[in-house]
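User: Could you check the structure of this?
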Amino acid sequence: MLKRKNPFGDSDPRQLKTHVGFKETATNEELQAVYDRTQALLFRGANPTKVVQDATALPSCNSAVQGQLKHEPPICCYYCKTTNAVISKCWFCDRSVCSGCLGTCAGCKQSCCTLCSVMNYDQSDVRFFCLDCVT
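Assistant: Sure, the predicted structure tokens are below.
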């Protein structure tokens, strides 16, 4: 049995889907405001000298203090590049790593960084295994 024909035809405007977006309803001033804001955000993000740091953010190893000469470079994490109070060495690769990027191997109980360890999700808690204990 064939389908019944549409009595209004195929080009009935009530059957067509139309999308009315912001560009169709916005005035030129609103579009210009959006364009100016987007351009300002792009220029602000592309200029690394005007980075505003949060007061609670950790100091970065790449940030230089102008007017002061440091005799020793700051000890910072190899992976996240922040200077935390707790910096220790990875047992496997011997790199300086902060406590956030360091895990304890469930097999040999050594401290390993995130790149020298593998996470295991077999049990309810996440376990770290160093590359020696995985093989």
